[in-house]
């Protein structure tokens, strides 16, 4: 906001006086808060710091000790500098005692060789200060207005960071406390250069205080959090070379205001979304969605994932989907809360087994993760270990319930490993399809894979194929039409029990809670409706396949 001593010396009214710095050149970048004309020796008692003192010296002490005290007292109160006009008290040069005292305290001491109207100097400097203050106020107002709008709109962290970078004209990075990048805006620079080796680079940026500037690293930093709970840092790059004055000074105060206001907006947004998914989970979810629907270039997803601490290149990628069981009478809110907890548990399990991966909820029934395995990792063992740790965290055994039963376990499904991020969609889709198909499987399988789901899995993969749907209608259409017309006389369940029990009529009667006579009568009716022979192995096999396909279609 304030001009420096160096900038004041460059003003025309001062340059006309032929200024010469005789001491304290190291302090020329001190800000000048005001200009004060003084001809009394005890002026220091009237100052508050930051003043540039103008004097002709006519009222200064006559002895060396008094002149030395005059300079020392000004330095003690934080004066920006002293400008002495030659000609009235001092003719050709300033006393050596004043020069030595000023040099010792790095207090700029300047002599004007020509007569200089001090009023012109004060006017020029004060106009500079007032104009800078007005500009600063306007910039501050714009900052507050922009971030207030973002807070009201509930803007996402990426939007807040982007707005901060736009207003500052500098790269801005939001990271969590583990130094993983949550959002960034490179402000026109190359993102790969900005984020390469970010964690190690960030750990070297450690200025003291809640908001501070690390001059060595060239970053302005502020903590992000509320209610005593910090969860991240916001960093704005301002290398000393960015100072257009060439002074190498600290960032202007408006940037400090900007970064603190942006941090407040981020913290407020976090509080507003405290019942939603964690911030990292949201970012992971957006990246997984981008891989599934190709909404972003794969190279961008790879770059952002790497900044999050999940390298996808030169890794074996394995899609894993975890499905939970629904509770009877469970509300939608409770189900979503449990799903969010499951996502956090999957993330914790990945950390516990020392793996990396993107984790997020995929839909209202499942959590997905894309594991990034090192070349030395044993893929089947790593996934099995993850499933075991996850079940221990959640407190579940392997899934063994009925389709409509309570949440008695988890279904964990894995896709085939791939070697490129461009193939990540394939392993994720396969894992999701296997998880869907495995919901009807009652075996104790820690991790389902495509070979484990057999025919049901194949039919699930083909459920959208018109020829499969035509086959189901041809085999079961008449029976489905009958059940639709007679809701109290459903026969599809009887057929299912008969086929699932291997055409054992006694076992089928028991499974369907029917007497043997009632079962025989219902099977006879099914034969008439479908015009088939239920004693035929081939006919029953065709009907069983049609039932599995119907389940796959209905579960889509």
TrEMBL record:
Domain PucR C-terminal helix-turn-helix residues, every copy = 491-549
Give all residue intervals belonging to the Purine catabolism PurC-like domain.
7-129
* Coiled coil location: none
What Pfam families is this protein classified in?
GGDEF_2, HTH_30, PucR
Q: Which domain of life is it from?
A: Bacteria
Residues in CdaR GGDEF-like domain copies: 298-436
Protein family (similarity comment): Belongs to the CdaR family.
Q: What is this protein called?
A: PucR family transcriptional regulator
Q: Specify the species.
A: Luedemannella helvata
